[in-house]
């Protein structure tokens, strides 16, 4: 299948999930996770109308951004971010989906202050409780929000989670719903000046369930580039 056909199919599946859950399809944005492909292919992705690019490793994110950012697009850093690599990402990537600890918030704030910029961030939450997954423990999320709210360079726009690789849909649905409920609670308690609107959840094997449960960003690699 070609890239264009894959994009078409994914969009249809998102449409159906929106219909099933009475959501407006314009609320769901696809992030093309380009970690499987090189610079030239990523250029084709941008030209094919998928303008949100997601990368999870600094060493491949930076060359792609350097080669292609003149074409526009919106650049999302979605992987674990080491504090000593923050410098390379801030000022280039538009969103960081993996804010998961205080030391990272501090490092981002420091760099953003130097550059006199603000950074859109999503807090990564470990809803599933899997030890191998990164993210803030849901029990510590509200305290975490309290401790980062004074970093005025951080524009907290939403929450992100990674679900386990399983085929059983019911625990997946619980995880995605759990993230939505946490976001709603943060907004009810007005932990930030602006309400959090974004939910970054859903990958190739589970994005329809995530959309049904309120995803606003789906992060898709395999289904676009490997099928
Ligand atoms: C690789 C990756 C994705 C995309 O996964 P696929 O299953 O290939 O769609 C999404 N989010 C993160 C953080 C990733 O590292």
Secondary structure layout plus pairing:
Elements: H1 3-20, E1 29-33, H2 39-47, E2 52-55, H3 58-68, E3 74-77, H4 86-89, E4 95-99, H5 102-115, E5 119-124, H6 141-148, E6 154-160, H7 169-188, E7 198-200, H8 207-212, E8 217-220, H9 222-225
Parallel strand pairs: 1-2, 1-8, 2-3, 3-4, 4-5, 5-6, 6-7
This protein binds pyridoxal-5'-phosphate.
Order of helices and strands: HEHEHEHEHEHEHEHEH
Overall 3D shape: globular
Strand order, sheet with most strands? 7-6-5-4-3-2-1-8
Radius of gyration, CA atoms, in whole angstroms? 17 Å
What is the strand content?
15-25%
Q: pLDDT average, as an integer?
A: 97
The secondary-structure class comes to: alpha/beta
User: How many β-strands, per DSSP?
Assistant: 8
SS summary, helix count: 9
Helical fraction equals: 40-55%
Q: Main β-sheet, in a few words?
A: 8 strands, parallel
Low-confidence parts, pLDDT < 50 over ≥5 residues?
Answer: none
The hetero molecules present are: pyridoxal-5'-phosphate
What gap, in angstroms, lies between the N and C termini?
7 Å
Can you offer a commentary on this structure?
Strands 7-6-5-4-3-2-1-8 form an 8-stranded parallel β-sheet. With 227 residues, it is α/β, with parallel strands linked by helices. The model has no long low-confidence stretch (mean pLDDT 97). The protein has helices at 3-20, 39-47, 58-68, 86-89, 102-115, 141-148, 169-188, 207-212, 222-225; strands at 29-33, 52-55, 74-77, 95-99, 119-124, 154-160, 198-200, 217-220. The protein is 41% helix and 17% strand. The radius of gyration is 17 Å and the shape is globular. The protein contains 9 helices and 8 strands. It binds pyridoxal-5'-phosphate. Pyridoxal-5'-phosphate is lined by residues 33, 35, 56, 78-79, 162, 203-205, 219-223. Residues 33, 35, 56, 78-79, 162, 203-205, 219-223 line the site of pyridoxal-5'-phosphate.
